[in-house]
Structures
1.
Amino acid sequence: IGAPPMNLLALTGSSSGPILADGTAIDFAVRETPAVTLGFRPEDADVTFDAEALPGALVLPATVEAVEPVGAESFLHCAAAGSRIIVRVSGRAAAKPGDQLRVVAKAEKLHWFDQAGKRVD
């Protein structure tokens, strides 16, 4: 089966900093960078049903579209930020299709890519 690919989200610029394609603001400090794509691995994100935002993290409201149990973990296939993303959770997922949740990825686990697809630091 193999691991799912990295989640990639398109960025656009604004006067207040980068925003995701659907208008979701990146509400934590980012370096001046030519990044046009933001990425995170399915195993580097968590899910929460709480409304509380974590400082220094990307928090995406998401809708679960499918749940894929694979042994000791599950993959949640979600719609978020105008894209489809996958999040790995341990055990059998409590979430089910149609559930609303928040996907949280800490800033240090994010990857930034330029227009050529090369990682920028």
2.
Amino acid sequence: MKKIAILAATVLSLSYSTASLAQTWSVDKAHSRFGFGVTHLSISEIDGNFKNFEATINASKPDFSDATFDISAEMASINTDIEQRDAHLKSPDFLDAEKYPTLTFKSTSFKKVSGKNYKLTGNLTLHGVTKPVTIDVVINGPITHPQSQKSVAGFKFTGKIKRSDFGIATAMPASALGEELLLMGNAEFAKN
């Protein structure tokens, strides 16, 4: 019985120490952008971004191979630099920002492919629908910021989803609006 108690205490101690080593990294919004691209009339690419977003990374390994990502964006902050188009995108014809105010992504795995290249898998909730997605990520850094002296790292995100999978503008033909939405992000994170 004593051996079982010692073993249980050791396992709990190891679990606690591993969890306590995790570091939180917060997004530097001044040096970050999360957005999208879509083909218009099969001839041009229209892109935009979300002005209001949050993102954090938790990782205990220096190469981020055990990282978890938590990203969200406000649908009402969509920006394509054309006010009339932005208003239409927020409407029930597209994103229905009033009914579905937030996009969220919560990672389930982050695996190193080679060098600085990773595959990020997680659950994307958009337009009231949650689906698993996989995103390519390239990491730059970490380095020590010359002014703040904090550890900082850069992450470039790219992935694709189908708008019909999320019930977005399902009545619109692909010849008018591309079926594939490109997800894009360039973000700097600083260790807290």
3.
Amino acid sequence: MSIWTELAGVEFSVAYVDAGGMRTRALQAGSGDPIIFLHGTSGHLEAFVRNIPAHVNAGYACHAIDMIGHGYTAGPDAPYRIPRYVEHVLAYLDALDIARAHFVGESLGGWVAGRLAADHPDRVSRLTLVAPGGTVANPAVMDRIKTSTRRAVEEDDIAFTRERLELLMFDPAVNVSDELVEVRHAIYHRPEFVKALPNLLCLQEMDNRQEDLLSPEQMGRITAPTLIVWGAQNPFGDVPEAHAMNHSIAGSRLEIFAECGHWPQHEHADRFNTLHLDFLSGARA
């Protein structure tokens, strides 16, 4: 299954939006209440191609964006810290006159969406955090992210890009396609991406990360109905982190997917889509 066949059943466009002066790539599809999809560290909007059609067909306007310095979106010549990511996402909303949206944030995207929901509750309708990062500073995990990403970017061998993607999955043989590897390899070897890599990896440095962590106090300020989705075999975060987040966000719901790594929305797309659409409708199992 290719990216194009995943999206073949819906009308969509890939647009470039001026979001606060940053040329921002976005996959836009559908109409209705808006959903903003935010990817993880060194990721890109293609992380959500298995989710867009189901949400479009359910009557939502989907916006999967490349965050600052990621994918084909421009980035400032400065470290990409959480407040800067939040500012960029808000600028995207403002550029399209979106007053309020649902958010789906995976990994880094969940960290950003969580902070946005805490600081700007008026902009968030419902919040879905998919294997979200940013609640702990684990040196081993931080080093794994830095090392694997740098090797994939600095070495031309596409096998290192494949290894970086395979880290995310419980079953990489099924979920890491040649096409997905080629898309990421092309992004990783853009001169702009290579130059910006230190800025992009700044949250894997202890001082930066600790200052920007999503704290229990911040999570306690999240008022949007919140769904947390976690993979039981998440290589970048243990299950107790999910339970702690669930405890900190009042009224939140936690779903742990078995046989699943760091991309639940991709590895178990059908289950995720059904769960998420029920959540958006207000249903609860």
